Structure formats: C-alpha cells, structure tokens
Amino acid sequence: MKLQTKRYLALGALALGAAVAGGAGAPMPLAPASTPLSATAAMRDPAGQVLGTARFVQQGMGVQVTVEVRGLTPGQHGMHVHEYGRCTPGVDEATNTVVPFGGAGGHFDPGLSKNHDDPQAPNKYGHGGDAPMLNVGADGVGRASFTTDKFSLTGMNGVLNRTLVVHARPDDYKTDPAGMSGARERCGVIVRDGLTTRDYGLPGAQDFPEGVAYDARRGVIYTGSAVNGTVYAINAATGAVSKFQEGGALGRQAALGLKVDAQGRLWIAGGAQGTVSILTPDGMTLKVLETPKSPNPYINDLTPAADGNVYVTDSTRPVIFRVDRNLNLTEWLDLANTPIRYGPGVNLNGITATPDGRYLLAMQLNTGELWRIDLRTKAVRRVMTGLTNGDGLLLDVSPAGRTLYVARNKDQVVSKVSLSADYGTGQLVAEEPLRGLRFPATLAMVEGDLVVTQAQLDRSMAGIPPETPFRLTRFGKF
C-alpha cells in the first residue's frame, strides 16, 4: 500500500475510531416516516429452494425481526447475520473448507470485536450479527420473533444486502467464530423493500472508489481510486467501464475528490501528495499543481465556482486553496482566523459552491459541522452541526428550494439537508441507506438522479477484505 494511502487511512481511523468503539457515529434520529423502512430475506436451502422468509422492520435505531423457515430438524438452531450478500458456496472460516453458503462470509461485525458472543452483548464486545436462536417444532417449522439494536437497516450497523443464515445446531454463544452451530442450512439476502437502484460495477479488486464526477456533455461518470489513483470513465447509459487514466500518472497515487469544469476538464484532489491534477477530456494530464511543501498535506476535495476559480480543501492544514483561470494555485483563506477549528483526524472535506456565486459550503468531517464561506468577504458562518462523518457534498438548487445531499461515510447513509435562502441555516430532513451503503464518500448528479460512491475505506482501515465488485450506486432524488 502506498504511503499516501496509509496516511489517508490513518487520518480516517482517527476521525472514525470513536464511532466504532462507542456508537457515536449513529445517524441523527428523525421524525418517524409514515411507512417504516423494511426488508425481506427469502430463505433458501443449498439447492436454491425457498423454504421460508425473514422480515425486518426498522424501529428507532433497531429492527424488529420475524423469521419462519421450513424443513429443519426439531430443536434450536443458531442464527446470525453474515457479512456478504451472497448465498453461494464458499470457504467457511470455522472449518476452512468449502461449504454451502460459505460465500456469505463470517458474522457481521461492525464493532470490529472479532469475537462471537450472545445477542445482548454490545457490538464492541461481540459480533453485531449474533442473533437469538431459531426454535423448530416437531413439524419442522422454525419460528423466531425479536427486536434488536445490535443491527439495523440503516447506519453503521446496517444489514441491508447482507445475509441471514440458519445453522444446523444450537449456538453456545461463546465459541469463536460461530458458537459451534454447525453447517449453514438456510440463507437469505436481506433486500430493501420498495426501492429501485442501479449499480455501476468496477473491474479492480482494489479500486476503493472515493470521488465521483459527471460530464453531462459526454454522458460519462468519472470515479477515482483512493488507494492507487486510477481513474475510470463509466458510460452513464450502458454502464460500460474503461480506464481513463492509470494510477501513478505523473506521480498520482490517490484520486479523492473529483470535479468536471465548464471546459470538460477533470480536476482531481491528490490527498497526501498535496496536489491538484487537471486532466483533459481525452485523458491526458494538462497540469499538476503542488501546494506548499508541508510534512502533513491532505488535499481532499475541490469545486469550481461561478467566479471562474476552483476552491480546494485540505483536511490537515487549516487553509482553503484557490486555483485561478490561469491555473495558478495560491492560499486563499487562512482558517486559523475563522470560527473553523482544526483538530485530529479529517477536518474540512467536501466542498461545493452556490450557483449565485456568493458562497462556498464546506463539510468538517471530524466535528459534523457544515460551514458557509462568503466568497466576497471571506466571512465564515456555521450553518449547522450534527452531520457526523459528513464527507462529500452535492448541492441541488431548484425552484422547489435549496437541498444539500451529504454522503456520511461511516454512518452509511446519504443525508438530505434543507437550506435557507441565504444558505446560512440548514435542517436535516431525511436519511437514505439505499440497499445497503458501504462507506459512501462522494456524490454527483446524473440526469436528475444521484450517484454515490461506495468507497469501503473503513474495510481498508481495519484490514478487512472488501466486498467486490466495488460499485457506484445511482438512485432517484428523495
């Protein structure tokens, strides 16, 4: 792994460690929706026959689960949520052999406990997927009904697009990795009810897509790898993927925030290299801009503004940079003289410009604060707080109002914020987990839809293998 990537992951670990350990990264509670978030898993045997269902209904920060499965031996059967949304054969870590439903992976473990425990144990001590047992009667029908806050359909404990697995034997709730519960006899993928999305898959095993941008004239979505700097071009209509520029081009080892300007040029934030790269529409490097030498640079995101300049955030140095029309990079705003206070971890991250040319909006990930910066006076105002783990921003201004979408990476939701007419205040109005987000980092608008990257950088930080293929997900505005 490259030095730049290691530094990125270290910054992220500092910012997100508290959320993993203590649950502080849970999404802000909203007013209950008229229809609760729900999901269903069709429970199949190894031959693929559906022999039951599991129903999940969101209740507050937890979920109500109702399971009925047929064709099992009478008695108690261990039951767990597993990491991956695959009911396919694969290697079972308990036996190190290929078994039915081994493709579901190990137990869901959002607290990184690496420990099997009982269904009442906090997630920092035991797997989040540890669930009560399924009780099977003499008729071979197993039933269970329970409510748990160990997992959810949204947030960092979200189980959408994971699997529910029923085992052959009882669970002793102590033996790693699966409580001695034996073979995997039933498996169902937990699928969100009543939602349509579209995924754009990426070809690489180590893509970790962080940034996304859209060129409407060409119908091309760009995304870049936080790990190796490779940039892909995706046909928005067909989903066809091509390599736009190889990672390592002119020293670029990471591609974080991406934006397309009015000339169709692609701008790339270079992370710990402290650079901004500008690519032509045919994939050639036009220029690489270097920020001032520093032991700790971190260029994270950028945005073109109506004044013809591009504004750039640095997550470790308290400064906003500006690139003018002649591609000259300068320090534009020293944040030390503003209300924005830098601390450990990732500070200013996502940034966007208002279409009226008046303001920048910038997200501070480690504090959950959203800031408004006046482009004329450089005055800084806090718009709101509470957007924990806020990463990339997408501003949608229409006659209906001013809406800001925020990708909240570790919280695994996209948040919708309603902004006032002067962008000076904001209110969180909705959160969307889609069909199971995996560390959403940035957003782009594509023909009236939203596209979000599923960066999975939390897995890279923890040394956990990523779910592949990596993907971007397209969905309607909410």
From TrEMBL:
Domain Superoxide dismutase copper/zinc binding, chain residue ranges per copy: 51-190
Keywords: Signal
UniProt xrefs under InterPro entries: 6-blade_b-propeller_TolB-like, SOD-like_Cu/Zn_dom_sf, SOD_Cu/Zn_/chaperone, SOD_Cu_Zn_dom
Stretch forming the signal peptide: 1-26
Pfam hit, one: Sod_Cu
CDD domains: Cu-Zn_Superoxide_Dismutase (cd00305)
Keyword Signal applies: yes
Gene3D superfamilies the record matches: Superoxide dismutase, copper/zinc binding domain, TolB, C-terminal domain
Family, per entry: Belongs to the Cu-Zn superoxide dismutase family.
Name this protein carries in UniProt: Superoxide dismutase family protein
Organism: Deinococcus rhizophilus
